[in-house]
Each structure stands twice: as C-alpha cells, then as structure tokens.
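pasting input
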Amino acid sequence: MKRARARSSIDFLGPMLLGALLLAAALAIPARAQAADPVVAQARAAGEVGEQADGYLGFAPGAAVSADVRSHVDQINIRRRALYTSRAQQRAVSVNEMAAAVACEIFQGRIAVGERYRDEGEQWRQRTASQPVSMPSFCPS
Amino acid sequence: MNVRAQVLTGLAAATAAGCIPVQIQAPDRPIEINLNVNIRQEVIVRLEGDAHDLLQQNRDLF
C-alpha cells in the first residue's frame, strides 16, 4: 500500500513537470508578441500606411512605400485574416463581419492624430486634432 | 371492360387521394430576408467583446 502511494506520486511528477513547461511556454509567447511592429508603426506615423474600415491595413494613395514596409503590412494582414477567420468560425459569423467588428474597435481608439485611414466609402482621410475619426456606419454608436 | 376497369381504378385513386390529408412541406432552407445593414450591425454589437479581446491579445498585429 505504501509502495503504491509512492509510485503514484512519482507518476504525477512527469505530467506536472510537463505542465509547468507548457505554462512557461504559453506565458513566453504572448510576452514576445506584445510589441507592435516598428517598421509598420513608423510607416503609419509617416502616413504611408493606414487602418481601413474593412479591418486590414492598407497603403495610402500617392505614398512611396518601400518593399520592406509592403511585406510587413502583407504579413500582418495575412495573420489578421487568420485571426478573424478562426474567431468567426467560433462565433458562427462571416469573416467580414468579424473583421468589421475589429475595425470598429480600431477606429474607436487606435488611430492616432496625424495618421491616415480609409473610411467605409474607401476614401482616405487624415485624423487631425480637431476632427474625430469618421466611424463606419456599421459600428455601434 | 378495360375502360370500366380504368374508370374504377381512377375513382379508387381519387377516393384514396381524398382521404390523405394535405401535407405542407417545409422548405429545405430557411427563408432569407435580406436586411443586410440591420443584421450586420446586430452581429457587430454581439462581437464587440471578441473584437476587444483580439486587439488586446495581439498587440503585434494592431
């Protein structure tokens, strides 16, 4: 009986160690993923790249966008789409609806003064200190 | 004889059909009402929390 108890505690050690390792890994991933992409952040500040009402980043018209910036933006949009797709499936809505819901959040508080953005009518605008961001009509008021 | 048999069969069929209650078939697919704007906004209101989570959890993408 004593032996059985001793063995069971050893049996627990393995999974516990594995669990601790998995937890450490899970904690490490979001910590690394927290920082915004500096290349894109700079392009946004420069008005070359901006948020769009469809939930993706876009290139402002007339801006000279480098290949590096372009590839970073493309990568972000691909990953955003994957994110929207998985969450849309969980909630049984369309990918576009999930993307639009995220766009509402972005337009509400993630467009800084001076940044450019593309509104619902696909017009590019610049956020100024005096003018609030033009919210898409599908966003809850 | 042949004609009479046919008439009788017809009558029998008609009588039988009369006894069967009328069946209304439900459509295979739900009836779609296209009110895009309203439905969309309603869905987006429902997704507000999810959108907030996605932004918070993926700072590198937003």
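fyi The interface with chain A takes residues 37, 40-41, 43-48, 50-52, 54-55, 57-62 of chain B (CB under 8 Å).
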